[in-house]
Design brief:
With 245 residues, the chain is an alpha/beta fold. The chain has a single domain, classed as Rossmann fold, CATH 3.40.50.150. The protein has 10 helices and 7 strands. It has a 7-stranded mixed β-sheet with strand order 3-2-1-4-5-7-6. Helix 5 links the parallel strand 1 and strand 2. The protein is globular, with a radius of gyration of 22 Å. The termini are far apart. The relative contact order is 0.13. The N terminus and C terminus are likely disordered.
Protein backbone atom coordinates (compact mmCIF):
# COMPACT_ATOMS: atom_id res chain seq x y z
CA UNK A 1 0.00 0.00 0.00
CA UNK A 2 1.51 3.36 -1.00
CA UNK A 3 1.83 6.38 1.25
CA UNK A 4 -0.92 8.30 -0.54
CA UNK A 5 -3.46 5.54 0.04
CA UNK A 6 -2.48 5.24 3.68
CA UNK A 7 -2.76 9.00 4.18
CA UNK A 8 -6.07 9.15 2.30
CA UNK A 9 -7.54 6.35 4.40
CA UNK A 10 -6.39 8.09 7.57
CA UNK A 11 -8.08 11.33 6.55
CA UNK A 12 -11.33 9.51 5.73
CA UNK A 13 -11.27 7.73 9.09
CA UNK A 14 -10.65 11.02 10.89
CA UNK A 15 -13.51 12.74 9.11
CA UNK A 16 -15.81 9.82 9.84
CA UNK A 17 -14.93 10.02 13.56
CA UNK A 18 -15.42 13.77 13.61
CA UNK A 19 -18.78 13.43 11.88
CA UNK A 20 -19.99 11.10 14.61
CA UNK A 21 -18.60 13.38 17.31
CA UNK A 22 -20.35 16.37 15.77
CA UNK A 23 -23.63 14.45 15.65
CA UNK A 24 -23.32 13.41 19.30
CA UNK A 25 -22.60 16.99 20.41
CA UNK A 26 -25.52 18.27 18.33
CA UNK A 27 -27.77 15.85 20.21
CA UNK A 28 -26.39 17.17 23.51
CA UNK A 29 -26.95 20.83 22.65
CA UNK A 30 -28.21 21.74 19.18
CA UNK A 31 -28.34 25.42 20.13
CA UNK A 32 -24.58 25.84 20.46
CA UNK A 33 -23.51 23.18 17.96
CA UNK A 34 -25.91 24.44 15.30
CA UNK A 35 -25.42 21.66 12.72
CA UNK A 36 -25.23 17.90 12.46
CA UNK A 37 -22.00 17.81 10.41
CA UNK A 38 -18.76 19.83 10.23
CA UNK A 39 -18.27 22.46 7.54
CA UNK A 40 -17.05 21.18 4.19
CA UNK A 41 -13.72 22.13 2.64
CA UNK A 42 -15.28 24.57 0.16
CA UNK A 43 -17.05 26.44 2.96
CA UNK A 44 -13.88 26.49 5.09
CA UNK A 45 -11.91 27.97 2.19
CA UNK A 46 -14.52 30.67 1.59
CA UNK A 47 -14.52 31.63 5.28
CA UNK A 48 -10.72 31.88 5.37
CA UNK A 49 -10.32 33.75 2.08
CA UNK A 50 -9.40 37.07 3.82
CA UNK A 51 -6.38 35.33 5.36
CA UNK A 52 -5.12 34.22 1.95
CA UNK A 53 -5.80 37.69 0.52
CA UNK A 54 -3.60 39.29 3.22
CA UNK A 55 -0.86 36.67 3.15
CA UNK A 56 1.96 39.15 2.55
CA UNK A 57 2.27 40.20 6.19
CA UNK A 58 1.91 38.75 9.72
CA UNK A 59 -1.69 38.60 10.93
CA UNK A 60 -3.54 38.14 14.19
CA UNK A 61 -6.44 35.80 13.49
CA UNK A 62 -9.35 34.68 15.66
CA UNK A 63 -11.57 31.69 14.94
CA UNK A 64 -14.72 31.47 17.08
CA UNK A 65 -16.96 28.43 17.29
CA UNK A 66 -14.37 26.11 15.77
CA UNK A 67 -16.20 22.83 16.44
CA UNK A 68 -14.04 19.83 15.52
CA UNK A 69 -11.62 21.96 13.49
CA UNK A 70 -12.85 21.78 9.88
CA UNK A 71 -11.96 25.45 9.38
CA UNK A 72 -8.92 25.32 11.69
CA UNK A 73 -7.30 22.70 9.47
CA UNK A 74 -7.61 25.08 6.51
CA UNK A 75 -6.43 28.09 8.51
CA UNK A 76 -3.21 26.63 9.92
CA UNK A 77 -1.46 25.98 6.57
CA UNK A 78 -2.51 29.47 5.41
CA UNK A 79 -0.96 31.30 8.35
CA UNK A 80 1.51 33.88 7.01
CA UNK A 81 4.95 33.80 8.62
CA UNK A 82 4.90 35.48 12.01
CA UNK A 83 1.11 35.22 12.38
CA UNK A 84 -0.86 34.10 15.44
CA UNK A 85 -4.14 32.18 15.59
CA UNK A 86 -6.46 32.15 18.59
CA UNK A 87 -9.15 29.45 18.45
CA UNK A 88 -12.17 29.87 20.74
CA UNK A 89 -14.57 26.99 21.41
CA UNK A 90 -17.07 26.80 24.28
CA UNK A 91 -17.62 23.04 24.04
CA UNK A 92 -14.86 21.43 26.17
CA UNK A 93 -14.89 18.16 24.18
CA UNK A 94 -14.42 20.03 20.91
CA UNK A 95 -11.74 22.21 22.55
CA UNK A 96 -9.74 19.12 23.58
CA UNK A 97 -9.79 17.86 20.00
CA UNK A 98 -8.71 21.28 18.75
CA UNK A 99 -5.70 21.25 21.09
CA UNK A 100 -4.54 17.98 19.53
CA UNK A 101 -5.04 19.53 16.10
CA UNK A 102 -3.04 22.62 17.09
CA UNK A 103 0.05 20.56 17.94
CA UNK A 104 -0.20 18.39 14.82
CA UNK A 105 1.73 20.58 12.34
CA UNK A 106 5.18 19.22 11.52
CA UNK A 107 6.53 22.75 11.87
CA UNK A 108 6.82 23.28 15.64
CA UNK A 109 7.04 27.04 15.11
CA UNK A 110 3.54 26.98 13.62
CA UNK A 111 2.14 24.98 16.53
CA UNK A 112 3.52 27.52 18.99
CA UNK A 113 1.54 30.27 17.29
CA UNK A 114 -1.85 28.53 17.70
CA UNK A 115 -3.70 28.85 21.02
CA UNK A 116 -7.01 27.19 21.92
CA UNK A 117 -9.34 28.82 24.47
CA UNK A 118 -12.26 27.00 26.07
CA UNK A 119 -14.63 29.95 26.34
CA UNK A 120 -17.41 31.89 24.71
CA UNK A 121 -16.09 34.68 22.53
CA UNK A 122 -18.02 37.25 24.58
CA UNK A 123 -16.01 36.10 27.61
CA UNK A 124 -12.60 35.93 25.92
CA UNK A 125 -10.11 37.76 28.12
CA UNK A 126 -7.58 39.30 25.77
CA UNK A 127 -5.99 42.62 24.90
CA UNK A 128 -5.24 41.38 21.39
CA UNK A 129 -6.82 42.95 18.31
CA UNK A 130 -7.32 40.91 15.17
CA UNK A 131 -6.89 41.47 11.45
CA UNK A 132 -9.30 38.65 10.56
CA UNK A 133 -12.06 36.96 12.58
CA UNK A 134 -13.68 33.77 11.27
CA UNK A 135 -16.96 32.90 12.98
CA UNK A 136 -18.51 29.46 12.95
CA UNK A 137 -21.16 30.28 15.53
CA UNK A 138 -24.75 29.18 14.75
CA UNK A 139 -26.39 32.60 14.82
CA UNK A 140 -29.71 31.14 13.65
CA UNK A 141 -30.02 29.46 17.05
CA UNK A 142 -29.32 32.58 19.12
CA UNK A 143 -31.62 35.25 20.52
CA UNK A 144 -31.21 38.76 19.04
CA UNK A 145 -29.63 40.06 22.26
CA UNK A 146 -27.00 37.30 22.19
CA UNK A 147 -26.23 38.09 18.55
CA UNK A 148 -25.74 41.77 19.37
CA UNK A 149 -23.38 40.90 22.23
CA UNK A 150 -21.30 38.62 19.97
CA UNK A 151 -21.20 40.97 16.99
CA UNK A 152 -20.30 43.95 19.17
CA UNK A 153 -17.50 41.88 20.71
CA UNK A 154 -16.23 40.93 17.26
CA UNK A 155 -16.14 44.58 16.21
CA UNK A 156 -14.37 45.50 19.44
CA UNK A 157 -11.73 42.82 18.81
CA UNK A 158 -11.10 43.81 15.17
CA UNK A 159 -8.42 46.25 14.15
CA UNK A 160 -9.78 49.21 12.15
CA UNK A 161 -10.07 47.86 8.62
CA UNK A 162 -10.19 44.27 9.93
CA UNK A 163 -12.51 41.68 8.38
CA UNK A 164 -15.09 39.33 9.89
CA UNK A 165 -16.53 36.34 8.02
CA UNK A 166 -19.48 34.23 9.11
CA UNK A 167 -21.97 31.94 7.36
CA UNK A 168 -25.59 30.88 7.34
CA UNK A 169 -27.08 27.78 5.78
CA UNK A 170 -29.49 28.35 2.92
CA UNK A 171 -33.11 27.32 3.42
CA UNK A 172 -33.14 27.43 7.22
CA UNK A 173 -35.81 30.13 7.33
CA UNK A 174 -38.21 28.07 5.19
CA UNK A 175 -37.51 24.92 7.19
CA UNK A 176 -38.14 26.66 10.50
CA UNK A 177 -41.34 28.22 9.18
CA UNK A 178 -42.66 24.74 8.40
CA UNK A 179 -41.42 22.90 11.48
CA UNK A 180 -41.03 25.37 14.36
CA UNK A 181 -43.54 26.99 16.67
CA UNK A 182 -44.69 30.53 15.99
CA UNK A 183 -42.56 31.82 18.86
CA UNK A 184 -39.42 30.21 17.42
CA UNK A 185 -40.23 31.54 13.96
CA UNK A 186 -40.56 35.05 15.39
CA UNK A 187 -37.26 34.69 17.22
CA UNK A 188 -35.53 33.43 14.10
CA UNK A 189 -36.92 36.36 12.09
CA UNK A 190 -35.73 38.80 14.76
CA UNK A 191 -32.27 37.18 14.69
CA UNK A 192 -32.13 37.60 10.91
CA UNK A 193 -33.13 41.25 11.20
CA UNK A 194 -30.41 41.82 13.80
CA UNK A 195 -27.75 40.34 11.52
CA UNK A 196 -29.11 42.35 8.58
CA UNK A 197 -28.54 45.59 10.52
CA UNK A 198 -24.87 44.72 10.96
CA UNK A 199 -24.58 43.76 7.29
CA UNK A 200 -26.04 47.08 6.18
CA UNK A 201 -23.63 49.00 8.36
CA UNK A 202 -20.44 46.96 7.80
CA UNK A 203 -21.16 45.21 4.50
CA UNK A 204 -18.13 43.85 2.70
CA UNK A 205 -19.76 41.36 0.35
CA UNK A 206 -21.10 37.80 0.35
CA UNK A 207 -20.88 34.62 -1.70
CA UNK A 208 -22.83 31.39 -1.89
CA UNK A 209 -21.02 28.09 -1.41
CA UNK A 210 -23.05 25.47 -3.25
CA UNK A 211 -20.42 22.75 -2.72
CA UNK A 212 -21.37 22.36 0.93
CA UNK A 213 -24.02 20.19 2.57
CA UNK A 214 -26.24 22.08 3.05
CA UNK A 215 -25.26 25.02 0.80
CA UNK A 216 -24.29 28.12 2.74
CA UNK A 217 -23.90 31.85 2.27
CA UNK A 218 -20.69 33.44 3.54
CA UNK A 219 -20.89 37.05 4.65
CA UNK A 220 -17.94 39.39 4.93
CA UNK A 221 -18.10 42.42 7.22
CA UNK A 222 -15.39 45.04 7.67
CA UNK A 223 -14.78 47.38 10.55
CA UNK A 224 -14.32 50.91 9.19
CA UNK A 225 -10.76 52.16 9.03
CA UNK A 226 -9.79 54.59 11.73
CA UNK A 227 -10.63 58.17 10.88
CA UNK A 228 -8.35 61.00 11.99
CA UNK A 229 -9.43 62.88 15.04
CA UNK A 230 -10.99 66.19 14.10
CA UNK A 231 -8.78 69.20 14.74
CA UNK A 232 -10.19 71.09 17.70
CA UNK A 233 -11.21 74.67 16.93
CA UNK A 234 -8.69 77.31 17.86
CA UNK A 235 -9.83 79.38 20.84
CA UNK A 236 -11.11 82.79 19.86
CA UNK A 237 -10.19 85.90 21.83
CA UNK A 238 -12.91 86.78 24.29
CA UNK A 239 -15.08 89.63 23.15
CA UNK A 240 -14.69 92.78 25.16
CA UNK A 241 -18.00 93.55 26.79
CA UNK A 242 -19.26 96.72 28.38
CA UNK A 243 -18.30 95.45 31.83
CA UNK A 244 -14.65 95.09 30.71
CA UNK A 245 -14.24 98.61 29.46
Amino acid sequence: MDNWTTSHDRVLAQRHAEGWMFLIEAARDMRTTGAIAPSGTALARALTEPVRARAGRPLNILEAGAGTGAVTRVLIPRLPRGSHLDVVEANPRFADRLRHLAVAPADAAVAERVRVHTARVEELDTDCRYDVIVSGLPFANFAPGDIEAIMDRYLELLHPGGVLTYFAYLGTRQARTLLASRARVRRHRAAEETLARYRRRYAGGCRTVWANLPPARVWRLQRPAATPMPTPPRPQPAAIGAADR
